[in-house]
Amino acid sequence: MKVAIIGGGPAGLYAAILLKKQRPGADITVYERNRADDTFGFGVVFSDATLDNFEKHDLPSYRRITQEFAYWDDIAVHFRGTVHRVGGNGFCGCSRQKLLLILQERARELGVALRFEVDIDDESGFADADLILLADGINSRFREKYVDHFQPEVDLRANKFAWMGSTRPLDAFTFIFQETEWGPFIAHAYQYEAGHSTWIFETDPETFKRAGLTGLDEAQSAARMADIFGWFLNGHKLLTNRSMWRNFPMIRSKRWVKDNMVLLGDAKASAHFSIGSGTKLAMEDAIALADAMEKAPSIKAALEIYEHGRREEVEKTQHAADVSLVWFEHVNRFWDFDPVQFAFGVMTRSKAITYDNLKLRAPDFVAEVDKSFARQVRSSGFDVDTERPIVPLFQPFRLREMKLANRAVMSPMCMYSAKEGVPTDFHLVHYGSRAIGGAGLIFTEMTCVSREARITPGCAGLWNDEQEAAWHRIVDFVHGNSAAKICLQLGHAGRKGATKLMWDGMDRPLEQGGWEVFSASPLPYFPDSQVPRELDRVGMNAVRDAFVAAAERGERCGFDMLELHCAHGYLLASFISPLTNTRTDEYGGSLANRLRFPLEIFEALRAVWPSHKPMSVRISATDWADGGITGDDAVAIARAFAEAGVDLVDVSTGQTVRDAQPVYGRMFQTPFSDQVRNEARVATMCVGNITTADQANTILAAGRADLVALGRPHLVDPFFTMKAAAWYGANDAFCPPQYLPGKDQIFRNSVRDRQDLEELKIKAKPKTRAELKAEATKPLAAE
C-alpha cells in the first residue's frame, strides 16, 4: 500500500506512525512545506484523558512526549484583584517544536519517509497512491481547491487574538481578566517546559481599536501586552513568532472524504483555543483513521467508517469550543459579578464541568461559590445562612410578593387531556403530585383563552365557568397540600391551532372537527395546514378581551402568578418573528412594530392582574432559522416587556417555523437565558434539556438564570425536587405530614449514598500525570 500525507504537523505525522505500525511494508511518505525544525506558536496542551489515548496507540512516542511535558493540576483565575485556584484538572504542556521532533523521530524509526521544504498543491503527482491524507492545516489548499465537494463553512469569530510566549514560569493553567482604560483584555497562559510558557491574548474588536492595536507589528503588540500584563509577567519578556493579531476561524466541513483523499486535523475542522483541543483533535483524527483502516475490508470502507464514526466526537468537541468562545466574546456581561461567581462561570463555561464535578475536585472553591450565592440571596431580603449555606437550587427567590421556597420549576407542558377545555382528574393528579413532590413553582400547560385559541381538541382552557371551577380545585389542592406556588400560563395557538393531539401527529391539521385559525399574516405552518386569517383590529380587540377575561378568572381561581405565552410560533409569537409577520401596517416591519400587539396584550393583563402578584412572559429567543429572531433580538424583546412591567422572562427557543434547525444538546437553551439575563438585566427562567439537579446548580451558581424549569424529568418523577433536596441536605424542604416518614428515610439514606458515590468516584479516578510524576520523584522513606 502506498500512502501520501500532505502536511507534516501532528495530524500527518501521527497518522504516518500509526499506519506504518499497522502495515510495516507500506510505502508512507510525509510531505511538509516547511523545514523540519520550523514551527509556529509555542506550546501545546493535552489532558490526561488524551494522553491515555496516546499511551494505548503508540507507547514509544507516548513515553517520549510525557518525558518532555510540564504537568499541572490547577486552573488559576485572576479577576479584579482576586485569584481562585481550582485543582484536579490534569493538564500537560509541551513545546510544539519538541512534539514535532519527537513524532518525526518516531516516524523515521518505523521507516516513514519525510520530505521537507516540498510544497504540494496538486495531488496528480500521487496518482499511484492508494491513500492521500490531506493534513495541510487550517488554511488547507486542498479543502479550498475542492470547496464545492468538501463544502466547508468558515465562521470568522469577532474577537481578536495573538499567540505569544514568555519566559515567565507558571504552575497552573492561568486565565487573567484585565480591565484597562480601553476595555477588557484576557490572557490564556500555561507553561509547556521549564522557563517557557504560552500566552494567548484576546480582546473584543472595539477594545482592540480603542487600544490602538490596529496596524501594530509583532514587537509593538508585544510591548503593549507587556504594559497591560506587566504586573503579572514580573519582568519577564514576551516572545513572538508570527504573533500577529487575527480572528479565529471556526471551520466545519460537510464532507471529509473525496475519492481516496481524506481531510485530517484543522484542515477539516477547527476548535477554539480556549478549550485547548486543536492538536488533540488532530492526533485523535489520526487514531480514528488508523482504527478504521485496521477494521475495514477496503480503503473506501475505512474512509466511510472514519468520517461517520469520528464526526460525532469532533462535532461534540466543536460545540463545547463554540460555547466556550462565546463566553469569552461576551465576558463583559459578567464583569460586575462577584469574583468567585465569575471564576465559577469560567470553569463551567463549556458545560463540560458542572457543580458536582467541581465540588468533588475542589470542595473549598465550591464552598465559596455557595457562600457567594447565599450572600446575594441575603441581600435580596431573605434570612439565609451565609456561612453554611444550602446549594443554589434550594435558595429562596422572590418575584414581587411571591416567595418561592426553591428554584426548581415544573415547566409548562401540554397534556392534551382536557375535555372541551375543562381540566380533568388527570390534571388534578398531575399538578398536585408535582407540587407535593417539592417543586418551588408549578406552571400550568398553555391554557387557552377561547375555544378557537386551542392548539388541539385536548387543550385546557379558561373561558367558561366549568373550566374556572376545575382550575380552582387544582389551585386549592396545591395551596392546601404543598409549599409550591402555581403559575397560570395563558396563550393562543394562532396558526398552529386546530391540529391533532401530540401522539396522533404533532402540529398536523385536524382532518375533521377543526375551527378557523388566525395569525399575524396568512402563512400556513405546513403547506397542507389551514391558511390562517390575518388578524385585523376587530379580531385583535377580541383576542385582547379574551386574554383579560381569562386572567380575571385566573385571579378568582387563586393563581399566584400569570405568564403570557409569546413563543413557539403561536399567535403572539407570530407577530414578533419576521418569519411569520409580513404585515405592512403598524404591526409589521420593525421589531418595535412587531412587538406592539403582544405588548398591548401584556399591558392589558398587567392592568387587571393584582399588582402584588408577578407576571412573566415566555419568548422564543431564537427561531433557529435564517432571517428570524436572534439572541440580540431576544434582549430587546425582554427589555420591552420589562419596561411594561414583566418580572421574569421565560426563555425558550424555536418552534416558529417547520424548517428550523435547532442545535440540541445538554442545557441547549441556557446560553440564551444567560444573554437575556445579563444584558437585559431582567430575571430569567431557563428551560431545555435540563435533566439533573447538578445541572440546575451549575446554571444558577454561574448566574445564567434565576429559576430552572425541568420538563421531562418531572413527567417521570413527580418527586424529582424532594429527592434532590435529600441528596443535597436541604432539610427544610416542605413535605406533607402524610409523607414525612418517607422524607425522613430518604434524607437519612441520601447522606450515606452520596458519601459512597463520592468515594467510588474518587477511587475510580485515575491519578493525574502530575500526581504520578510527584510520586515517582518522591524520596523513598527510610526503613
TrEMBL record:
Residues 2-316 form the FAD-binding domain. Gene3D superfamilies: 3.30.9.20, Aldolase class I, FAD/NAD(P)-binding domain. It comes from the Bacteria. InterPro entries: Aldolase_TIM (IPR013785), FAD-bd (IPR002938), FAD/NAD-bd_sf (IPR036188), OxRdtase_FMN_N (IPR001155), YqjM-like (IPR044152). Residues 393-725 form the NADH:flavin oxidoreductase/NADH oxidase N-terminal domain. CDD domains: OYE_YqiM_FMN. NCBIfam families: PRK08255.1. This is Bifunctional salicylyl-CoA 5-hydroxylase/oxidoreductase. It comes from Bradyrhizobium agreste. The lineage of its organism: Bacteria, Pseudomonadati, Pseudomonadota, Alphaproteobacteria, Hyphomicrobiales.
